[in-house]
Specification:
Largest sheet: none
Number of strands: 0
Shape: elongated
Number of helices: 2
Structural class: mainly alpha
Length: 76
């Protein structure tokens, strides 16, 4: 319900509050080099809700990557 603009919505998708800790972990690790955000269907996206959610998650990830980009700050 938080991402109606997907082409194949599933009732057992990842809840948004669970994505925060996962993105934080990926943003801090040097092993994550690529982040893929997929499955946006603009015709189904009510008020750009899904696009805004995806953009905010990517933005948070980018901020973490910037914060931990110095070699001494990289963990794992």
């Amino acid at each position: 319900w938080v991402a109606p603009g997907t082409s194949a919505a599933t009732p057992f998708g990842a809840p948004v509050d669970a994505l925060g800790p996962v993105l934080a972990l990926l943003g801090r690790t040097r092993f994550c080099r690529v982040l893929d955000v997929a499955e946006l269907c603009p015709t189904r996206d009510v008020s750009n809700q899904t696009a805004r959610l995806a953009a905010s998650l990517v933005y948070k990830f980018a901020l973490l990557r910037e914060e931990y980009s110095a070699p001494e700050n990289l963990s794992l």
